[in-house]
Amino acid sequence: MPGCRIESHPREALGGARGLPRWLSLDTAPINRNTRVRTDQGERRATVIFERLSAGGCQSYLIGCSDSCAAVIIDPEISLVDRYVALAARDGLRIHYLVDTHTHADHFSATQQLSRQLDVPVAMHRSSPAPFVDLRLDDGEMLVVGKYRVQVMHTPGHTCDSMCLLVDGRLFTGDTLLIGATGRTDLPTGDPDALYDSLFDRVLKLDPEMMVHPAHEYKGRSHSTIAQEVAGNPRLQVRDRAAFAEMMRNLNLSMPTHVTEALRTNMSGGKTVAQMLAEATAGVPFMSLAELRSRLDSGTGEMLILDVRERDAYEEGHIPGAKLLPRGQLELRVNQDLPDPTRRIVACCEFGRISTLATATLREMGFQRAVALDGGMKAWREAGYPIRAGREP
After folding, report:
1. What is the model's pTM?
2. Distance of CA 344 to CAs 164, 303, 308, 318, 372, Å?
3. Which domains does the chain have, with CATH numbers?
């Protein structure tokens, strides 16, 4: 998948010296902090299966227990939904929890979609505004994932619902602590004083050798440690509380791309435009440019070309014979303009997106022979196919 990076070890790599447990990951060495489990056959190794996925700087993690086949996904991202499911199936894991470390403002969480798809609960801190959260966690509580425990540390600052997750010697910090930086505090519910307390009074007092796995990393680094961050993280060198808060208030960072849509969907559980388009695309058929051109040349008149752009775009140039019915008026004018629900209809727009949504709507309204033009008017023009300007079809 373009833009997606996965790091893991195959099952053949399970085990370790003297049968001790180990984490599975191409980016780290085995941890010396070993976990043993008691069975009827006596003491034997337990293994944590670890997958780190990257998509546009967003880091998400699948953690599983090889003994029980239980797993948890931390900070899943919407574009990687199929990848999580495939990885869990490959490793023989059943996902038990979907956890967001905080309300994300810079990408779209996949927790709700995965929850519906897999019938798995969504877990977040109790302060989360999201209505779809099934399991609201508080500081000091744990999730049981097979032989392992996911311990919650409430670390407000980046957002009021931010938390870090401690799993067998690794700390998943969300956006509280990044590699060489910290989470920003200028987004909704951010608080620089709270971030100072979370970092200097809690996170940085953990074992210096503890590995740090953040929710974002844009330079290709896989992990850090508490000791490395204390020594080299520029923001953590400002140890005075007032000075730290002042620094955070004056970072003057640009706003994340899609911040409004990300906050809307992650806080409310609503759908993104991309999700709506993907759902529509999955439910409608398409016709190629060449196929439509061939059918137009045949002159049979068997199909109606429905241009769902606005009038000014239509009059600048449309497919000869196309009927104008703007998408915004479709539901209100459908009975008047499209009296025959058995008619074969090809919907078109500029880029092929709006016509896909329009086709899905037409099919919901009973026009079962409606299809969308693959590529839209831009591709039609680039192909050199005929265009007609003006108000007349």
Report:
1. 0.71
2. 55, 5, 16, 19, 11
3. 4-270 (3.60.15.10), 275-382 (3.40.250.10)
